[in-house]
Amino acid sequence: MALLKDWPWERIGNYKYFLMLPLVIRLLHATYWVGSDKDNWSFHILLICAMRYLQHMCWMSFSRLYCLVKSYQVQSCGTEFDQVDREFHFDNYIIFQALVATIAHECHLPGFKNLPLWNATGVLYLVVFHMGATESLYYWVHRALHSEAFWQYHSKHHASTTPEPSTSGTHTLLEEILQSGMMALPIVGAGAMGGSSVSLLYIYILAFDFLKQMGHCNCEFVPMWAFKLFPPMKYLLYTPSYHSLHHADCNSNFCLFMPIYDYLGGTVNKRMRSLYLSLRKGNEIAVPDFVFLAHIIDIMSCLHVSFVDRTLASVPFAPRWFLWLQWPFVLPFMFALWIWGRTFVAYEYMLRRLHAQTWVVPRYGFHYFLPFGKERINELIESAILDADVLGVKVISLAALNKNEALNGGGLLFVNKHKDLRVRVVHGNTLTAAVILYELPKSVSEVFLTGATSKLGRAIALYLCKKNVRVLMLTSSRERYESILEEAPADCRQNLIRVTKYQAGKNCKTWIIGKWTTARDQSWAPTGTHFHQFVIPPVEELRKDCTYGKLAGMRLPKDIKGLRTCEYTFGRGVVAACHAGGLLHALERWEHHEVGSINVDRIDVVWEAALKHGITPTWEDSN
């Protein structure tokens, strides 16, 4: 192991945040036990740390909001899970600098004791020391880190060829010691000249982070008129495209924020101006072949999207305790989206063989069941379909509640209304049914089916009865049951049995859950029952003596590029079966709409096509 390469708290993982606990205790002690601390240094350190985290979150949200950055993206290929994992502890520098600042204050270093709130002269000193000392020193240290002797300390930062704001903080311990030392030069220098102030610390630290994260945001948003209005700016401030060339070509563009040092050192990349001009003219946006129209499930899961928290988005969703702390702040946004929300685009990933995007209808799960919201939701979905049609999208697939039978008949409403649609509207439930059916043991002879008269329940019941499997169909509607019974072949109808109570499944060990079930409902299942399910959200796993299947999901092929977000509760590389069904529709170039009732005769066809393309069921992973 190289000296000063690993962080001292590397082995304790997230427990590293307890290193900040003494600061919290000191703040409470100074405030409530011994009276107000004159410097209140602990308060300032903690507040600066909080502001740094908040600023980072804003940059991350901006860089991942595809609807904002799509025209000016520097690198079109998205980040992947390995980069998210590699940059998980990007905030080590915040903890390190907080600890160093605390030590500096305790040692009474210049610029860290008895500070006034504001000192205008100190800002001038700060700028001079930064431009003259920090920038020049950083340039030469950075070049040294690219030498063979020190590359092992810097290679982790360059492993991210598509930089994101988190990349700016991904350093080894040695890098951070050097960078923190260079950051301290202007602060100590201004203090030695009598120019320190509390506001100067806030301004410099937050501005330093701002510029670092700006350079790594992968979006060239700096307008051309800024350089025309002030030509020397090209020597004084770098741009995201300028810094991206350093990640593409490690032998150029070494500056911190000021390109003048690259000009003086002869290390300016020759592509710098042409890349900037081409990006500012706007990228040509490739029209995706396939779009998945998703929706938000609930308030907690809306925090799982990649432009809110990329780390949470990279793992399967779970209602973690700290998410509840954010609930009061998210609630107002829910009502704002409810009232003023329009369909917006959130870029998710790109496939090697086909461009794919996810569009989001900004509605929460319970909205779909409010009678007065039905018309508005359908308007949003219809608008998205028509937009996709105009753009030239080949297939648009509807997520679970966007194709609700009571809402729009599984998408049939839109196809009937717009007969000349070029885009194919797909609910993808044929593949969902296939996943559930092929997961059943071949020896199964009887199943207990809830949600039996739903779109999926009907297809499952008809398919199984043809296979001579006895289906106990739980439904209160005799009319809908009889309608399904008439669709079944005459010699198979005896396999479809209508039941009206959960007690009817007390002797059946294979339950297929298509509607929400309570603890009392589940209690009727015998010991050893396996619960298959196709209900959103998934049922609670309440029985310790039974096993529970996951939602119907499919693992995408390994050659996918740019995948960085987990879809709801599914693992990495896994999407809902209906999502995969829409993707399959595009890959196979099928020309029909897949709306309304499921064509039972196509279940096996769709299943074989999915396997052919390397789209496999998740239950194979455990085999």
Give the helix proportion (percent range): 40-55%
- Approximate shape: elongated
Radius of gyration: 29 Å
The main β sheet shows up as: 6 strands, parallel
Round the mean pLDDT to the nearest integer and report it.
89
End-to-end separation? 38 Å
Identify the strand order in the major beta sheet.
8-7-6-9-10-11
Q: Determine the structural class based on helices, strands and strand pairing.
A: alpha/beta
How many beta-strand segments? 14
Relative strand content? 5-15%
Per-chain topology:
Elements: H1 21-32, H2 41-64, H3 66-69, H4 81-86, H5 92-106, H6 120-145, H7 151-158, H8 173-192, H9 198-215, H10 224-229, H11 233-236, H12 240-248, H13 260-265, H14 272-280, E1 290-295, H15 299-302, H16 310-313, H17 321-324, H18 327-340, E2 344-350, E3 355-361, H19 374-391, E4 395-398, H20 405-408, H21 412-417, E5 424-426, H22 429-439, E6 446-449, H23 455-466, E7 470-474, H24 478-487, E8 496-499, E9 510-513, H25 519-522, E10 530-533, E11 547-548, E12 553-555, E13 574-576, H26 577-587, H27 603-612, E14 616-617
Helix pairs in contact: 1-2, 2-5, 2-9, 6-8, 22-23, 22-26, 22-27
